[in-house]
Known about the structure:
Blueprint: E1 2-6, H1 10-20, E2 25-29, H2 33-42, E3 46-48, H3 55-61, E4 68-71, H4 76-89, E5 93-97, H5 106-115, E6 119-121, H6 123-134, E7 142-146, E8 150-156, H7 179-183, E9 189-196, E10 199-201, E11 214-220, H8 224-230, E12 241-245, H9 249-257, E13 263-268, H10 271-280, E14 285-289, H11 295-300, E15 308-311, H12 316-328, E16 333-337, H13 344-349, E17 354-356, H14 358-367, E18 374-380, E19 386-392, E20 413-420, E21 423-426, E22 438-444, H15 448-451
Parallel strand pairs: 1-2, 1-4, 2-3, 4-5, 5-6, 12-13, 12-15, 13-14, 15-16, 16-17
Antiparallel strand pairs: 7-8, 8-11, 9-10, 9-11, 18-19, 19-22, 20-21, 20-22
Helix pairs in contact: 1-14, 6-9, 6-14
Amino acid sequence: MKIIIAGAGEVGTHLANLLSKENFDIVLMDEDIDRLAKLSQDMDIMTLGVSPLSIKSLRQAGAENADLLIAVTPNESDNITCALIAKQLGTKKTVARVDNYEYVDDKTKLLFRNAGVDHLVYPEKLSAKEVAASAQYSWVRQWWDFDGDLVLLSVKMHDSHPLKDEIKNDDNQFLGKTLREIGQRGHQFHVVAIQRQGDTIIPYGDEKICTRDLVFFMAKRGEIDTIRHMAGKDDYPAIKRVMIIGGGKLSVRTDWALPDNLSVKIIEPDMARCEKLGEMTKDRTLIINGDGYDMELLKDEGYGNLDAFIALTPNDEENILACVAARKSGVRKTIAQVENLAYHDMAEQLDVGTIINKKVVAASFIYQMLLKADVKSVKTLTIADADVAEFVIKEGSSVTRKPVKDIGLPKEINIGGLVRKGEGMLVSGSTYLQAGDRLVVFCSSNTLNKLDKYFR
């Protein structure tokens, strides 16, 4: 597959790095020659130091026979123009990153599609959904809903309450247990992955759950309270009071994605921006002009009584430290925007909470388009080196001919569950897959493309 990436910024670079590992024919275009020179040393890709808006340059990049063009420069208009030109030159599919929420309205998307831009990517909208989903429960790190009453969630394992001195060994009933022992209890959930000390493990029956593991569960919705109890999280509060520091686009979109019954405060240091936020956010949201790291201000605004603290400023370091301080002050649910991938392990070690990375979220959305199978969604997990994909089983697919245990899926793959005729169910080795099943698959990063052939 031939892919052209226009723009060597954060999203473009991350995508190029991701796709170069999967043997795609990648061309990365950008006018910053010095930046491209460094990137070409680290990745097996072709680079062109030219303008993505030049018809001559797009032809030089191979737009006339490209399978996909991804325009992710910092300029929205340039992205749209680049995609439109590439489409007219012959590129089969085009994607453009935009910054205008109006453009991703369903009717407007159709307008762009008819003009030649097949997909629009608005990272703030995609990321806001992730933030709002993760903010549903104070004891859950990440949360994804699937059709048919299936849920994927991750929970941090502690051997004691993180805000109490006493240790109760029976608080967490998962710790020290093998997956086989947990499975013998007959619950309707599976452990599909474990993130441990920076490594992602696709576990089997003999794997034990250890302290500080981030454990990913696929479960029927009715089992959520069971997981919470067994993980020793019964006394974590419901989310009612939320504070967001930073008044950027992601904060606005997060405000709209959060439920209406929450009390939300946004703290922003720029007065002019505060006035705009008052017009852009929901009526139930209070806008406060001030520094999100001013502890006196935070205390005056009920910092100690918060259920969730969300740091979405442009500064990664400040977001991390703000969440660490919030957790030390007793806030159970903290979410930090961390765009520098090099900081993710440190943030996890500091127990920051949920981490959101806009470029990873956007890359997941775009990556879905590269798979030949019928894929409804792909999520690249920010902390774990893994992906979650929702495949639709096609008529005549090879995976329908044998039980799951005999399909021969790679060891890096774990099938979490499926939705059949609107009903969610977990999958065991003896399960036979059927055409039309929507299968939720958990796998190590850079293995989705290998899995693709099973579901064509």
